[in-house]
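step 4 of 6: structure.
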Amino acid sequence: MLLPATAVLCAMLCLSHVVAGCSGAPGDAFRTRVFLASWHMGVTTRSLFAWSFRGTLPPFVSKREHIREIVRKSTRASPRSAFLRASNGRGVSNNGSVSTTETAAAPTAPQHVSVNRPNPVSVGTIVWLASELMFFAGLFAMYFTVRSVMPAEEWAAETAKLNLTFAAINTTVLVLSSVTCQMGVLAAERFQPVRTGKIFQVGRWGMHEWMTLTYVMGAIFIGGQVFEYAELVHEGVTISSSAYGSVFYLTTGFHGLHVIGGLIAFLFLLGRSFAARRFGHHEATTAIVTSYYWHFVDVVWIALFAVIYFLQ
Amino acid sequence: MKIEVRLFIWLTPFFLVAGVVYGVLTGWDEPVGYLGIPLVGALMAMIGAYLALTARRIDPRPEDDENGDIEQGAGDQGVFAPWSWWPLVIGAASSIVFLGLAVGWWVLYIGFIFSVIGLIGWVFEFSRGRHAH
């Protein structure tokens, strides 16, 4: 009976200090204060209670448990508000990814310096993309296996129907879309969702403009692929016409599905950004990992293009 | 992050060499092996290089320090959703999609509808309603 009561008392005491220490707008400063106040209060209340209830008190809850409790009570919402606050923190990283972070670095808190860790979303995306590489490795293996068992002149008769010029133009569009995507990421990293100038002042574009342009270029690529398929079907190359047709449509088709998946990801990215009143780490991280995926799909296409159209 | 980087980077040359050895032993007659094995090396290189780049950008972590203590790692570990129902919706929708592959196309379309709902709900979970920010 005594123990829950002390816990509640302790939490309320800390809460009052947090509220007193908070000057208003929830944000980073607030978060830091919550942290510092809870930590200091944790220390003082621990000694206070340890002294008052010598021998009757179990070990004090861990620091993190304690903080979680405070945050839960102070927001009066689910712990998810704390999640969102965390995703909106300050902390600009230079090139590359946005790192998770930084309650810390307040000079008055030498006991605790929060660690600047790799962003789990980015690392997870890279690991997943590595597995995607294996998926495409299977497709390449299939392509070369069929190529090695099919009679050479039969194979050459099929590859002669490919339209290299058209595919090269299409490839250029996709490669350039990776550049525009990266420009969008740079805008996201400076937390700039929209343009600051006129629509044609490209230098002042924000993430929305760059990512929309990327989306359009990706859509052009898909349109080009559909056009090319139509041409080839017209010339009699279908997925069931020959072994060459099968590997051609399977490799380029699975790549095309990945590009479509990327286009959907861009829509989700733009949707998240439109929905956010304040463009924060949540949105920037989405932009960065979407760009990872897009670059990956682009690189895979360059390899596919080189193999199918040049190496044949 | 030395350990993580080495764990992946050091396996890259191994797989490249293994791919060449495989190619020689099979007389370069079997593309699945001599393409697939070096690409496993590429997988290792991809993760390792990313971790190496990340390691240059962040401060040394307590776990990189030989004399580090557990409690030095306290504080933010990253941003995680505390709970969510949406993965369950997506999982159920995926089961319907795969059921569709086995039973009939019409089931597949129903599964797609649920997948779209689940996916949108999941992606926008922390962007709307109570969590709008």
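step 5 of 6: annotate
 - DSSP finds five helices and no strands in chain B.
 - Residues 52 and 69 of chain B are 23 Å apart (CA to CA).
step 6 of 6: archive
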